[in-house]
Amino acid sequence: MILRGFALVFVLVAGMANARAAELPLDKLTLPAGFGIAVWAEVDGARSMTVGDGFVVVGTMSSEVFAVPFDKQTFKAGKTVTVTKNLSVANGVALLNGVLYIAEQRRVIRWGNAAFDPAKPAQRPVTIGPDLPDKAHHGWRYMAAGPDGALYVTLGSPCNVCMPEGLEGTIIRLDPDTGKAEKMATGLRNSVGVAFHPVTGAMYFTDNGADMMGDNTPPEELNVLKAKGQNFGFPWYGGGKARTRDFMQQQPPADAQFPVAEFNAHSAALGFAFYTGSMFPASYRNHAIVAHHGSWNRTVPIGYRLMDIQMDAAGKVTGVRPFITGWLDRGRAWGRPVDVKLLPDGSMLVSDDYAGVIYRITYGK
Questions:
Q1: How far apart are CA 16 and CA 161, in angstroms?
Q2: How many CB atoms lie within 10 A of CB 184?
Q3: How many distinct helices (H) and strands (E) make up the chain?
């Protein structure tokens, strides 16, 4: 089933969680003219993704990691393959020189020493780098391969509002050869998305604002790192410039960094990708497409959409607008976008851990 244009049909559909392709009401989604969306693959609990040579690896918040082979001519997905069922909160996945790395709650592992092959997924995991904070609250890790050949791993603060300790509330740079880790960004509550600007190479990342501060505050964030070690204001700020009650009497760091783009409170901005393909109109080039997973701590739910963060070639945000909406229908969610990645043909993949699928977004097909 492929949806095109601005169609939006309000039809309630039963069997939301773990629904499969034939059951999903894609006609509820609103897309810009000329775009289409279809279910590309079925993957239980699909979260973070990384794209390899003819396959996509998919992490989850459970013990499992999956791989989806695809035809390199048609880009149609093959049968989903189970890579492993024996990890712990195996959310973060990244490929470097063909080798697969997986970020669990407590560690980062290299999935063997050879280039990953979905036809032969079994490997002996090797731990690299330091032990990570082994706490369940915000314990899912997001990981991205940087243009410098290092891994960048997000480590959430284990709380709603508290003072992080050690590696908590940071993004670390991890050398895959030596295992050396260094803090690149601090003062984060729960960053669940990292990507590098295709022109400047700067690291951008999302951060989720604090709960229990009201329906409309604090904002969710998209940030950019301009210098190693910068502090992004948590826990003095719950998001944006909104001060937290617990740390209201404390002086925040004078050099605290504020977001380059803000989103509605509790919309849960997670994974994103810069558009570098040639399939979409040229006006989308270098824009960041951000997944909003959706709210729980809000009277009226919000999120459940993709947002288009318009940027110029220098990485300056020039506008924020919805890209695809409709996974929330009259207060009920039937899908929750998590991560965004590009296929080599310029089409876009979006994972959905609630519906258990990966969507493919195309233009002009």
A1: 32
A2: 22
A3: 0, 30
Q: Which residue has the tokens 């976008």?
A: 337
Starting at the edge strand found earlier in the chain, the sheet holding 108-111 runs 92-96, 99-103, 108-111, 125-128
Per-residue DSSP letter, 84: E
Averaged pLDDT, 293-302: 95
SS3 of residue 364 by DSSP: coil
**pTM of the predicted structure, to 2 decimals:** 0.94
* CATH superfamily membership of 39-363: TolB, C-terminal domain (2.120.10.30)
Rg (CA), the chain: 19
Q: Are 246 and 263 in contact (CB under 8 A)?
A: no
Other beta carbons less than 10 A from residue 252's beta carbon: 18
CA–CA dist 24, 18 (Å, integer): 10
Cβ contact 351:337 at 8 Å: yes
Question: Quick check: 94 and 87 in contact, CB under 8 A?
Answer: no
Query: Contacts for 249-257 with beta carbons within 8 Å, 24 or more apart?
Result: 253/187, 255/230, 255/231, 256/187, 256/231, 256/232, 257/187, 257/223, 257/226, 257/230, 257/231, 257/232, 257/233
* pLDDT digit string, tens, across residues 16-68: 334 467 789 999 999 999 999 999 999 999 999 999 999 999 999 999 999 99
SS3 263: strand
Q: What share of the chain is helix, strand, coil (3-state, %, to 5)?
A: 0, 40, 60
* pLDDT tens profile 307-345: 999 999 899 999 999 999 999 999 999 999 999 999 999
Residues 224, 205: Cα–Cα separation, whole Å: 6
Tokens of 225: 């790192």
- Paired tokens of 132: 């990570």
Domain ranges of the chain: 39-363
